[in-house]
Amino acid sequence: MLKKLGIFCLLITSISVAQQYEDLTLDDVFTAAFRGKYFSARWLPSEERLAFTKTDSINGKSIYSVDPLQSDTLLMVRGNDLTVDDSVLAYTRWRFSNNQERLLLETNVRKIWRHSRSLVAVIYSLNTKTLQPIANGDRVRNVKFSPDGNRVAYLKKDNNLYVYDLVREKERRLTKDGSPNIINGHFGWVYEEEFGTYDGYRWSPDGNYIAFWREDQTKVPTYPLIDYMGIYPVTRFIHYPKVGEDNPSMKIAVVDVRKGKKRWMKLESGPDVYYPRLSWIPGNSGNSGVSANLLITKLNRLQNHLQLLKADAQTGKVKTIYEEYDPAWIDITDDLIVLNDGSFLWTSEKSGFRHIYHITADGKSMNPLTSGDWEVSRIVTVDEEGGWIYFYSKRASVIGQGLDRIRLDGSDLQTITPEEGWHSVQFGPQHRLFIDRWSTAAQPTTTQLKRTDGTLQKVLMQPDTSGFKKYGFTYPRFFQIATTDDSTLLNVKMTLPRDFDPNKKYPVLMYGYGGPGSQVVSNYWSGFSTYWYQLLSQHGIILFSVDNRGTGGRGKAFKNLSYGDLGKYSAGDHMEAVKYLRTLPYVDPERIGIWGWSGGGYLTSLCLTRGADFFSMGVAVAPVIDFRLYDTIWTERYMGTLESNSAGYESANVLNYVDRFKGKLLIIHGTGDDNVHYQNTLQMINECIAKDKQIDVFFYPNRNHRISGGNTTRHLYTKITNYILTNL
Question: What domains are defined for the chain?
């Protein structure tokens, strides 16, 4: 558990005899040795064996499986057998059908937005050892097997949905109205980014029907992304609804994959309603209509009123079976789990903390299965046969993530992963075994094989930390500080420099994000960031992070504090943290900096302007500057509409505080950023010109929000590192 510490409490355990260590360089940070190995095997869909790829000169890039308990390795697919036109297939992603008789191979994969991609798809039959190109080798999206593995569905560039019968070798087009403005079976930019999904269709359990979204973007304004690398710039436009603009309109239909006949669900449509999730209710989807229903999640534009709709797939009739309200907003999750009897599991924050509920099929009875002043993070899996629900929780620690389980009737709550830190798990299909990737802020990821009661069976991959010793790695300490206004306790983490001397004065670099429901004070190993922070620490910099009011893990009331003004507590509590740091005798109060990316870039920009008396230096990567320039779904969820909350938008606007700026600020942005447009940085520059303020700016041509590709990441971190070491 976290404990509040006094000013000098960290000193006792931090004073050490100076030793001779080697110094990290950026070359060290970027080498493969420091990234370590990642356990990449995955469970097969119908048996508890792990599948993985291995490349050698004899078999090529082949797919193997192994029983993790017995370690008997079998060759499933020989890479050199995957030959098309006398060339071995260069696949990058792969996925088995449920019955493991066929394999989907993805080649020539191209990223579209954050999650979506286009690709060339080939199906390999493990029985006949033959390859079937899909869509005549054209690029497709969202390729998925039917439940029986005999068909695949996908989208083509015309934005229509297709199905291909792998037995009859025939393709059927299921929709005909696809266009640049009409998308069938795929989501446009704003749904993908803010509801976390791009796949816009769902196979029915029997594989005879597909439920799909039809997205109409006709009224959504477009934003230009300009490629400046040619002789003449090339412009492409994306549909991007900024605050107050029209959203895409959604319709949902069920189509018979054999006949092509469609039934539209009788839903409200328009720019002020969202349909972010749908699920089939298990049962027969035939003409009898038995259990041929859908569960559809509906949100109003303010996202504070959620409804679960049951839709009859045969008639299109819709009725509300459950609804809830929140004074601020309701988060969309994937915790809608339909059980075999048609009832479902659901997580809700209606009690003040996210917990699991069992709701009857008609929605008339809702039974809480978990309760208490702690949060369920999400449902991981449900073993109906065994009678267990497995879920991530913060029951043991707000800054960690553990795996718990509870009976379907709400009895016998158990902790499955008692080790403190962060656990990320993958269950086998028969719910007998799971893979546990476990780490702490001081311990890199260990991959373990466990039984579902938590019993350790085998360590699959152990991290090698021997190289850390020669560099004298230091690790964060977690504690809480109190705010000066109302004594709210905030979670923080602090890493002191190597060979720390309490008689010296050190600069501090904060890393922050601060957005609603986020957490940066977490007890896990963060890979590359850990190594890079070690480099900064070895240059005598104290590293510090705080989770301000409005962040996650501490209940809905705490999270709702961010509503209506995204800058009030995010920037305000980082200033509170500076007040705390100024009380520490080993902190140089004149050298406190902050950096962040995206929402953290916004936080940094606000701290260097609104909080200019507290911060001397900042690096803001891809920052939002004015939330009127950001998208509808994310911004209006936390800020409300511009019409109803103009004061909040003005208060959160960085441009309104540029006149206070007096430190050193570097803003970095990709000109191809589809998420946070570099328009934000241009408007910041323009305001700095008007207020006669000097800031530093660097643009990465055509790079998106991640600012990556080729040598980009290395160049980016070299620039950030140099700026911090020069100006802090």
Answer: 11-34+466-727 (3.40.50.1820)
